Input
Amino acid sequence: MATEAVVSVRDLRKSYGDVVGLAGVSFEIHRGEIFAMLGPNGAGKSTTIEILEGYRDRTGGEATVLGVDPQRGGINWKARLGIVLQSTGESGDVTVKEQLSHFAAYYPNPRNVDEVIEAVGLTEKAKTRIARLSGGQRRRVDVALGMIGRPELLFLDEPTTGFDPEARRQFWTLIESLKAEGTTILLTTHYLDEAAKLADRAAVINGGRIIEIGPVDELGGKEARVPIVRWRTGGRLNEQRTPEPAALVSKLHRELGGEPEGLEVIRPSLEDIYLELLGLDRAGAEAEPVLGEVGE
Amino acid sequence: MSTRTGATATPKVGSMGRTLRLGVSRIWYELRVYSRRGDSVFFTFLFPILMLSIFAVAFSGMGNLGAAPDSSGGITWAAYYLPGMVAAGMLLSGVQNLGVDIAGEKSDGTLKRLGGSPLPLISYFIGKIGMVLVSAILQVALLLVVARFAFDVELPTDAEKWWLFTWVFLLGVVTSCVLRIALSALPRSGKSATAVVIPIVLLLQFISGVYLQFTMLPEWLQNFAGIFPLKWMAQGMRAVFLPESFAALEQTGGWDLGWVAIVMLIWFVVGLFLCRITFRWIRKDS
Output
């Protein structure tokens, strides 16, 4: 079955001098799965992803990527990965097509260059130099370079930064088609709707620790997803969480003898749940100040 | 998806043939990028030709060098400066282009991207050295054409001199390249690269007999310059382009071609070794 771990991380630690970047992170990503890492800036998402890509060395714990320790990954290992880094700044004196054709030659079994250009929606720009593309278009070149080698495992570090809403929708379709082909994907993003749409499972990272991990539609537990009914009586805002919002609304209707003022039924989105998780984590850290001081 | 399980059948990508093939592909890619960069690159490319023109014109009124007492024979100043300019071109193509180039690639993320791809390091080096070789060959060809037709410099006619030219040229350019790649670990950013590289290169040219007549320098400075490869490149090129009688003006009274080869080879090997230990796709943990 599809339970083979493509990425396996146990008690991963990373410190820069006195500063702790990762304070013991553990998770697994299974073959064919899209796994999202969520968290505020500086939480440790990029540190984790760059350790797994082989760019940084860990200071503790274990990590295995495609059966190999990323600190010792060689050419054959790299040929099975696709990497979309968080930042790009290449001068780009080559055209989109030249760049992709050149990189395709690095891989033993690359995808068709024109098909990849088509998939990222740059067909019309194929003969344009990368330097002359807009930020969002350059980002699509990054994504194209990440998938050109037909990777088994694709790292996407904030891939849709700078995309317009339409481009993001197209990108989601692309990622779903990669998943359908069996690609395993590790995604970080600040767009919670993107994570909700694409990911099978997600981890929320804060302060170098995982504070929540699980299937995307179960994050935060059942309570976090209980719908909220909101209405006004007089000038006062009422709010009640209930698993049976329709029953509550019809009861209100009866009691108030008509349409409740300002009625809303809200199902917490992933974003609401995420923010609540971070808020709880912060409150927890303040309650136990010792945990907050990682530098000592 | 059951056809794709675990570590099956990823074609072997670590072979020497693949490394060479990708190296050649990198040469084309690098040349393409280089040729599109315009301005600064163009100037580096033309630099030795411009310098030769300036020297030839500036000293044109001073008569020939090394003429006999009856003022017959001797060579023009253009002919005298040609070997120095060839040597400067060899050093500059390698050192200046690459230096600024690699530092730039380091800071703009190109190297990081390459480091995450299955491109062998050796292929990357082949690409850099190949690009420099091709541009240096074009440059020296243009320089010789200008010297021959604009300044009427007599070029050697016997095969032996051209064979000498070939090995001094190739060894010199390749040595400059590896030294430059090795030094690319030094400047921390693309911007500071120019500031670090240019003074070194300029000083070397002055003390190595490119701009100034080598024998004018005090002996201790001649000996100091002899540590570095540029002095030997220039000397090798003088052996190619200057008449035999000029050998007497050299430090030891001869061309010392054996030393030319030995010193450049030593620097080449040292450079290769340094490349291997200092070059990193990225500075880990910076």
Q: What stands out?
A: Residues 77-107 of chain B form the longest helix (31 residues). The two ends of chain B are 40 Å apart (CA to CA).
